[in-house]
Amino acid sequence: MTPVRRKETTVHVDRIACNGQGVCAELLPEWIVLDDWGYPIVRGDALPADLEPHARWAVANCPTLALKLRKVRAGGSPP
């Protein structure tokens, strides 16, 4: 029997679509900071469950739709 791995949520930025408006960092400052040019730097580890609603709000309000949530298997490998 194969062990069931839990899926975790990570935040991803489409660097081509992003134009550095910084809305994501304002809405999710616990997870996203801006670089010197205003582009987001996102933590690469799994998003804590209590931040998921905030992350969904940030994704929904990204003006260029560059912010995404991804489900990954625990340990970082894609599903």
Explain what you see:
This protein has a single domain (7-73), classed as 2-Layer Sandwich (Alpha-Beta Plaits), CATH 3.30.70. Helices cover 18% and strands 25% of the residues. It contains two helices and four strands, in the order E-H-E-E-H-E. It has helices spanning 23-27, 52-60; strands spanning 7-13, 32-34, 40-42, 67-73.
SSE topology:
Blueprint: E1 7-13, H1 23-27, E2 32-34, E3 40-42, H2 52-60, E4 67-73
Antiparallel strand pairs: 1-4, 2-3
Low-confidence stretches: none
- What's the average pLDDT? 90
**Widest beta sheet: strand line-up:** 1-4
Question: What is the count of helical runs?
Answer: 2
Q: What's the CATH topology name?
A: Alpha-Beta Plaits
Q: Gyration radius, to the nearest Å? A: 13 Å
Which class best fits the helix and strand makeup? alpha+beta
- The percent range for helix content is 10-25%
- Per CATH, the class reads Alpha Beta
Please give the largest β-sheet.
Answer: 2 strands, antiparallel
Give the tally of β-strands. Answer: 4
